[in-house]
Amino acid sequence: MDALVRQHKYFKEHQQEFAEEHHGECVLIYKQKERGFFASHADAYFEALKRKYIEGEFLISECIRPEEETPIIFHSRLVHRGVSHAPYRSEQQNLLDCG
Question: Are 8 and 25 in contact (CB under 8 A)?
Fold first, then answer.
């Protein structure tokens, strides 16, 4: 299992506890253990760098209750497989190219 996936799983298992005790703060998780709570994402990130944690192996997440989470959806109009995006193509044609 990927390190970041393990950190996220640990966060989800303890999310309610973190939200009750540190609501609104950012938690730094490394090797399935919380390594600190910080006022901002940047503070947590710089602490991770100071401790020489490897990027992609630590997680920083805001301590909020699950019902407060807002899903983030990313949309892209890029076509992959080395095909450049032609602006005159229809959205349907672009979707078919991604299949």
Answer: no
The pTM for the full model equals: 0.70
- Residue with token string 């393990």: 6
DSSP string, 30-85: ESSSEEEEESSHHHHHHHHHHTTPPTTSEEEEE---GGG------------TTPPP
List beta partners, residue 58. 30
Per-residue model confidence as pLDDT tens digits over 19-60: 999 999 999 999 999 999 999 999 999 999 999 999 889 999
Residue pointed to by tokens 């490897």:
54
Sorted by where each begins, the domain ranges of the chain are: 3-66
The HSE-up count of residue 12 (CA atoms within 13 Å, CB side) is: 7
Distance CA 19, CA 27 (A): 10
What is the C-alpha separation between 84 and 98, in angstroms, rounded?
Answer: 12
